[in-house]
Design goal:
Blueprint: H1 26-35, E1 40-45, E2 50-53, H2 55-61, H3 65-68, H4 81-92, E3 101-108, E4 114-125, E5 131-140, H5 141-157, E6 164-168, E7 174-177, H6 179-185, H7 189-192, E8 201-203, H8 205-218, E9 225-233, E10 237-251, E11 260-269, H9 271-298, H10 303-315, E12 321-327, E13 342-347, E14 357-358, H11 373-380, E15 384-387, H12 393-402, E16 411-419, E17 422-431, H13 440-465
Antiparallel strand pairs: 1-2, 1-5, 3-4, 4-5, 6-7, 6-11, 8-9, 9-10, 10-11, 12-13, 12-17, 13-14, 15-16, 16-17
Helix pairs in contact: 9-10, 10-13
Length: about 475
């Protein structure tokens, strides 16, 4: 047995012998409980004699229960002789003090080493309420410090961390949410608990749930994962954000085999940095396209062919269709008045992709209705954006065809063609429903392309005059 009773102070714990029914007696049950504890434990009677010593105490110090039980204090075996009196007094002082007493001191191992331990001791009282002894639970200081650090880290993560921290249970529902994650999700910490992720996020739920399921089954991924999500915000509407996520599988340390308790999900918002990277990459690509277009156009003998070369290079990654319309009359000056008439000069194929095709040899004006974006672009001498809006596909097709555009166009951007202070026409870029609407940065790029196309058209006109 790992615990023995050699003092009357322990007789209150129960009989030594098993009951007549064969059930374990009080000492057997007590020994089993003590041996199963994760903490080292010993007990002293009122005279300071060791009465109990469990297996964890044997593991830490090397002294067995047979070596320890019955000794008077720690003097001469578990503590240096010079420290024995002080250690004995500090341990037995718990009999006269309320609550638990915490101390740190060095104990000797059986092989002569020293171990710094932290003890918690408290009085054991008899049936009459008087102190009958002391129990002392102890552990190595470094193990206790590791535990305290783990607890402190958990509290810091859930209070002051700059990352969002969410503990997700095995059913993929938040069980604990820290303050940062609560602000990121736009919902109270208590309100988020137990709710499906689909109720917290409008988009990106499938990717997150797939990642969490993978972690539960396979373990943590080797690197953080970036996921775009759309948040539901009653005040600000839907917001699209990019989160960098790390996932940690949580398993019970008390089970013989790992039992999944859920996933620790940590994330931080990297939307601004990600958008900056995307904008920088897009700018580099467009700059290279303009450079390639300029080199290709320089090899064209016909200036009109050079204009279509600029259009084709600009189309890559920017739009689905593009059109060039020139003024039917002479180039328009800023003080010109009268109706604007445009003739289709070039267009990308409406069906299969391919290079732009020169058209409009007959010189017939395009049937643009009043207020058409291309006409407005000429009148304002600036970019004009238009879109079909959130309408059914049939209405969107009708919207495009009424403006003499391909039927799948839902977003349009018109840029004026100007050279030598005169307006020569309009270039129109069109996007389908699969693309996002044109933005201000797109308008700047369209103006750069328009300048190069206008220069080519101006050269073509000057060549014809000569």
């Amino acid at each position: 047995m790992s615990a023995s009773r050699r003092s009357g102070a322990t007789d209150e714990l129960g009989p030594d012998e098993p009951g007549a029914s064969g059930e374990p007696g009080g000492s057997d049950l007590l020994a089993a409980l003590l041996d199963g504890m994760d903490a080292a434990l010993c007990a002293f009677d009122a005279a300071g004699v060791v009465t109990h010593w469990n297996r964890e105490a044997e593991r830490i110090l090397g002294w067995s229960a047979k070596d320890a039980v019955g000794r008077h204090g720690f003097a001469g075996w578990a503590v240096r002789t010079a420290d024995a009196e002080e250690v004995q007094a500090r341990l037995l002082s718990a009999m006269r003090a309320p609550g638990r007493q915490v101390h740190e001191f060095a104990l000797l191992t059986k092989d002569g080493g020293r171990v710094l331990v932290r003890t918690q001791s408290a009085a054991v009282r008899g049936a009459d309420g008087e102190p009958a002894g002391v129990y002392c639970a102890f552990s190595e200081v470094h193990a206790q410090i590791d535990l305290e650090r783990s607890i402190a880290l958990s509290e810091a993560l859930f209070e002051d961390a700059e990352w969002g921290v969410v503990l997700v249970d095995a059913d993929l529902r938040p069980a604990v949410v820290n303050a940062h994650a609560s602000r990121a999700l736009g919902i109270g910490r208590a309100s988020a608990l137990g709710r499906p992720l689909g109720e917290l996020l409008a988009q990106g739920v499938e990717e997150l749930e797939a990642a969490l399921t993978h972690v539960l089954a396979e373990g943590a991924p080797p690197a953080p994962a970036e996921v775009w999500v759309t948040l539901r915000s009653p005040a600000e509407g839907e917001q699209r954000r990019c989160w960098r996520n790390a996932f940690l599988p949580l398993a019970s340390p008390l089970a013989e085999e790992p039992v999944p308790l859920g996933v620790g999900w940590l994330f931080t918002d990297v939307t601004e940095a990600k958008r900056g990277e995307q904008e920088a990459a897009l700018l580099r690509f467009r700059t290279k396209q303009l450079h390639r277009a300029a080199r290709a156009a320089a090899e064209c003998e016909d200036p009109l062919e050079a204009a279509t070369v600029h259009l084709d290079y600009a189309l890559a990654g920017f739009a689905d269709h593009a059109l060039i319309d020139r003024l039917a009359d002479a180039p328009r000056t800023p003080d010109a008045a009268g109706a604007v008439r445009l003739v289709r000069l070039a267009a990308t194929p409406a069906g299969a992709p391919g290079p732009s095709v020169l058209t409009g040899a007959a010189g017939l004006p395009v049937r643009y209705e009043p207020g058409h974006p291309a006409l407005s672009c000429v009148e304002r001498t600036g970019c004009v954006r238009a879109e079909a809006g959130s309408v059914p596909p049939e209405l969107a097709r009708e919207w495009a065809l009424r403006r003499q555009w391909p039927g799948d166009a839902v977003h349009a951007l018109c840029a004026v063609l100007r050279s030598r202070g005169r307006t020569l026409g309009v270039v129109t870029f069109l996007r389908g429903a699969a693309r996002t609407p044109f933005e201000r940065s797109d308008a700047s790029y369209a103006e750069d392309v328009a300048l190069r196309i206008a220069a080519a058209l101006d050269l073509a006109g000057a060549t014809r005059e000569r």
